[in-house]
Amino acid sequence: VPLIFWSGEGFPLQQQHLAAKLTKKIDHSFLFHSLLGIFNVSSSEYIKDLDLFADAIVKDSVDLSLKSSAD
What we know:
The protein contains two helices and no strands. The chain is mostly helical.
């Protein structure tokens, strides 16, 4: 199943890190861990090696963590 990911200018990625991950064979299990990583969700289920965006997102430049409006 193909995967298309679009990010705007406000979502800076280090292309060389992302390209290195995409040379591997990937499957559906990468989606779960990649979404946890993008949204900065802490979970014992998270496996960094299955996160397509681990090390590719420029940290501290974007905050996508899920926060309630009461915070």
